[in-house]
Write a structure and sequence with these properties.
Order of helices and strands: HHHHHHEHEEEEEEH
Shape: globular
Radius of gyration: 23 Å
Distance between the termini: 54 Å
Helix content: 40-55%
CATH class of the largest domain: Alpha Beta
Number of strands: 7
Structural class: alpha+beta
Number of helices: 8
Strand content: 15-25%
Largest sheet: 7 strands, antiparallel
CATH topology of the largest domain: Phosphorylase Kinase, domain 1
């Protein structure tokens, strides 16, 4: 089999998704039989598909919410038609009132927390699913960091390089590809000598202004998030905030250097 390396990844994905014809499937399976590393990667892809089905298949069996029924949607559109002039007038009034309020208070409106809340929620869900894994904590191991970084960079459309956190006592186990609200995302996983694990979640940014550095916490985890115009980041772990913040600072600096990106944060 003389397929180019880039096409091999495509063929492995197609094999896992059942998209190959019988002849090509047999050829790819024969090649995997002589390439244990790629066979392990294919197995990880299958596990990833299984995990996604376990999480999301149940949604397919849920009834359609009443609010999304076509008849109700049409009724709402009809009801809104005659109210549009009133709504437009109200909008103008709100703009005027808002402008006066901003002038009087000399304040600046900033975006709400919705985007950062979604980001942290995605990161912590992925943390909860994969950190307990003993056999398949990562999709691609850290044994070949160049392959890991290049693969995740290619799939996310961003230059991603796993930060080196050994100075903080955590070694890289590997990483995996994940779905997110803004397209493919990446998760790097780290572990210390005591078996504690942390994950660094990265997904494409929206090109807007950088997100400010923020802390969050939940049941059994703490997190720090920040963002650059092209990359949004969250580090999650069951560590005390000062220790996790030190990891976040190290990751922040290294990602900024590797991507040439600038964040909204100024570490003190």
């Amino acid at each position: 089999m003389t397929t180019a390396p880039d096409n091999r990844d495509l063929e492995i994905n197609a094999l896992v998704d059942g998209e190959l014809d019988a002849s090509t499937q047999a050829e790819v399976e024969a090649w995997l039989a002589t390439n244990p590393k790629s066979a392990e990667q294919a197995s990880a892809y299958r596990q990833f598909n299984t995990d996604l089905h376990q999480i999301f298949d149940k949604v397919l069996d849920e009834p359609i919410p009443a609010a999304l029924h076509p008849a109700l949607i049409n009724a709402r559109r009809t009801a809104l038609w005659w109210r549009r002039p009133m709504m437009a007038a109200a909008a103008v009034l709100l703009v005027l009132i808002g402008g006066l309020g901003m002038w009087a208070a000399n304040a600046v409106l900033v975006p709400g927390p919705a985007a950062s809340d979604t980001l942290v929620a995605e990161a912590t869900r992925a943390y909860a699913v994969y950190v307990p894994e003993l056999l398949h904590p990562v999709e691609v191991t850290a044994s070949d960091p160049d392959h890991l970084n290049n693969w995740l960079s290619s799939r996310t459309g961003r230059t991603l390089v796993a930060p080196d956190l050994t100075g903080n006592g955590f070694r890289l186990l590997g990483g995996r590809l994940l779905p997110s609200a803004d397209g493919p995302a990446a998760q790097f996983m780290y572990q210390d000598t005591g078996g504690r694990r942390v994950t660094l979640y990265l997904r494409p940014g929206d090109g807007a202004e950088p997100r400010e550095f923020a802390a969050a916490s939940g049941d059994g985890w703490n997190a720090f998030s920040w963002g650059y115009p092209q990359i949004a980041c969250v580090i999650v772990g069951d560590l005390e905030p000062p220790e996790l913040r030190a990891l976040a600072e190290s990751a922040y600096r290294q990602i900024g250097v590797s991507t040439g990106a600038k964040s909204a944060n100024s570490w003190q």
